[in-house]
Amino acid sequence: MAISEEQVRHVAMLARLGLADDQFAALGVELNDILVQIDRISALDLTGVEPTAHAVAVTNVTRADVVRPCLSHEDALLNAPEQQDGAFLIPTFGS
Amino acid sequence: MAIDLTTLSVRSIREGLTSRDFSAAELADAAFERIEKVDTQVHAFNSLSRDLATTAAARIDALVAEGAELPPLAGVPTAFKDNMNLVGTRTTCSSKILESYESVYDCTAVRLMIDAGALPIGKCNMDEFAFGSSTENSAFGPTHNPWDLERVPGGSSGGSAAAVAAGEAVLSLGSDTGGSIRQPGALTGTVAMKPTYGRVSRYGVVAFASSLDQIGPFSKTVEECAEAMNVICAHDVMDATSVDRGAEDFTAHLRDGVKGLRVGIVRDLLDLEGCDPKVRERVLESVESLANLGAEVGEVNLPSTQYGLPAYYIIGPAEASSNLARFDGIRYGHRVKDAEDVIDLYMRSRAEGFGPESIRRIMLGTYALSAGYYDAYYGQAQKVRTLIIRDFERAFADFDVLVTPTSPTTAFKIGEKAADPVAMYLSDVYTIPVNLAGIPAVSVPCGTVDGLPVGLQIMGTHFSEATVLRAGHAVEAASGFVPVPPLVATLS
Predict the structure, then answer these.
(1) Which residue in A91, B2, B73, B492 could disulfide with B116, CB within 3.0 to 4.6 Å?
(2) Which percentage of chain B shows pLDDT scores above 70?
(3) CATH number of the structural domain B5-255+482-491
(4) Is the model's pTM score more than 0.95?
(5) pLDDT tens for each residue of B10-37
(6) Nearest to A17 among B196, B350, B376 (CB)
(7) Which residues of B are catalytic?
(8) Which of residues 25-84 of B touch A (CB under 8 A)?
């Protein structure tokens, strides 16, 4: 399955990557090179084979519902590019 | 006395501390002197943590002064891949997007190493977010292989591997999603282990592909690998996939030998076209040496592993695209200054902050998970994963360990594969099936080709690290490999 430049633009939007125009064409070529390799498995008939999400059997883990120490407010904000009144600052949604 | 880190082991450091030949503070100084001398050429480190090392050394020296029992890794200069959080250091993942990120908590495996007496020397260079097999994808420049400075050390944990090979650290930790510990181990002549999925807590290592990632050690010898494994393999409530199996001493049976051990050569993988015939030769010599020691050697095929690479290049990027969604310029990381709205902020902060390979993988993963493609790609890759697991199960019914080369080639030149992502991905053809199956594997140096080290990959079934390491110990003893790269030889 080849990926078109239009699809590359769509996927970049989904991935929230604001790429420059010249990057779309180059990425399209690179992704298609990789997809040629990947298409080797798309063509396999794997009817009846169960998918594996985790190689080692895992089960849900729960803990006792008790308060325990966690990241302090100060530490949580330590790397914030912008903050105000003890909260992360973001620009407006939409316009 | 002058301390030469390149000649020291975990054990000789303990003995030297106990007999007061040197102090832990002197060991830390020796590491930083060595780094000053060679790291302008090697570039194994992104940052150094002198204060943390000094504090850790003072604790050990106080224990020595009291005559108290020393913890297992007392005074061992240790380096950590720069995707592992440690308070007092930046955790950059060798990315511009996290260039100034200060750790706010400790990675469990790092904390266990330091609690066991290790001296945290610094954070090691890597391919950005662990995407790569050469450490060329670092935003801060490539790491150079101590065996030949014009060559790559492998990746993505290339800095961690080079630091140990160049004698800048005695131990280091890396992370392995598709071979990122074992492949650089092979290319730098170090012992490098990926434990069973769930053996080592992933808490505090920046996630790449959560169903594949695992932390493991680099060392010069198999014994030291086992000593580090003893420390980092522990149940952790902070990682829901962490396995609770109680403590195991991986050093206990190292020297039991390989008499009667059933060793399977993976014939179809060994015969892959891209494998350097001289690498194949070294691997077969190693297996021969195991047979001479009484191992029962046979051959096996793993036919589904031919689909390992394509399955990995769906599953890895798919999980990565999801994990890397958190880098949005709001809570941490690079942020553009003049965003019009929140979408504009995300789009431009991420495009500016991520390097080319990260963008490629995020795009690939997002595409594979997008509406209309999920079943054909991600669903199909997960089924291939099942087939690969079945292949291994069949093989482990007949064999205790399986062997392949770790990497199809020795260290390649910097720039040689940088422009061709698909050629670069082939570097991990032997290591990827192991992550997909969640089994443990170690790369042990087994000789050289044209002066460059070759690694033998030894794989075992889930939680069989002790057996894998026992085989590794026998290979190490038989190979006569001397882990002294030219850079070490010229300075000593």
Answers:
(1) B73
(2) 100
(3) 3.90.1300.10
(4) yes
(5) 999 999 999 999 999 999 999 999 999 9
(6) B350
(7) 81, 156, 180
(8) none
